[in-house]
């Protein structure tokens, strides 16, 4: 289980990265019908190579075109044998037309006796200021993150809010046609989604069709190109399965998978709760 150590050292940061890969936060279409308050909650199992290593939680509140979201992660199953780390991340901002315009993001966690912290302020689709700890040690190989890299970028949790154009079904290949520019406080990277298929699933809080998106991680800045972890993640097979939450233009993640050197890392919904919208397909 030596491959579990990197996961434990940046427990919440890993969750945030997975969120951008596959949409751990709820995906919402900014239509007039969402003017009323709505909330979505979810619990997720986290497994590595078939073994449970963690539990994740999701809470999202929509009030008009404003949003606030929170995710949490803590060890579970055999994960408790390798790490005492846990943490959470929060984000807030606005849905403007078919765009997500973040305002604030904060992540805090403790793992392997190290505290991790990120605070971002954002506006007009750019990172305005940031505070992170710990900072990377100086390394000549590391690609420097410049102001250019923080323009047209957003935090990991807000990036997982994916508006679907009005008049188009969220449960279609259109949901996967996007590239997400992410800055997590340390690194800048892109996640490119592409449509794979629509399939039926059952259990874990939802019975019905899901749209499956393939994902590709592309490093932009803040990374060291020669690192094995960077090379592996660039080539890794990734997917997200998106399920409707009682209406066509609101999607939530059902399953996330990322190929790693020690096996498949999977986040899968174990319980979904929808309030403030039709939820005849959601099960408590």
TrEMBL record:
Pfam families, sorted: DUF3108 (PF11306)
InterPro entries referenced in this protein's UniProt entry, alphabetically: DUF3108
Descriptive protein name: DUF3108 domain-containing protein
Source domain of life: Bacteria
């Amino acid at each position: 289980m030596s491959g579990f150590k990197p996961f434990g050292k940046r427990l919440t940061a890993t969750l945030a990265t997975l969120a951008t890969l596959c949409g751990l936060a709820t995906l919402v279409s900014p239509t007039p019908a969402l003017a009323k308050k709505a909330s979505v909650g979810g619990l997720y199992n986290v497994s590595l190579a078939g073994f449970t290593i963690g539990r994740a939680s999701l809470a999202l509140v929509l009030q008009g075109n404003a949003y606030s979201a929170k995710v949490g992660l803590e060890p579970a199953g055999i994960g408790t044998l390798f790490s005492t780390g846990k943490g959470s991340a929060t984000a807030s901002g606005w849905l403007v037309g078919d765009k997500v315009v973040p305002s604030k993001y904060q992540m805090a966690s403790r793992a392997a006796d190290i505290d991790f912290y990120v605070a971002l302020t954002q506006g007009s689709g750019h990172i305005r200021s940031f505070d992170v700890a710990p900072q990377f040690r100086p390394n000549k190989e590391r690609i420097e993150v410049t102001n250019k890299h923080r323009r047209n970028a957003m935090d990991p949790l807000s990036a997982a809010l994916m508006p679907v154009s009005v008049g188009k079904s969220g449960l279609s290949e259109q949901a996967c046609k996007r590239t997400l520019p992410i800055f997590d406080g340390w690194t800048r990277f892109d996640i490119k989604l592409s449509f794979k298929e629509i399939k039926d699933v059952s259990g874990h809080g939802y019975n019905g069709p899901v749209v499956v998106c393939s994902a590709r991680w592309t490093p932009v800045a803040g990374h060291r190109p020669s690192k094995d972890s960077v090379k592996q993640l660039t080539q890794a097979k990734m997917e997200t399965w998106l399920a409707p939450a009682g209406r066509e233009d609101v999607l939530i993640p059902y399953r996330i998978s990322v190929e790693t050197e020690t096996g498949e890392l999977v986040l899968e919904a174990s319980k979904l709760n929808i309030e403030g919208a039709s939820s005849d397909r959601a099960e408590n």
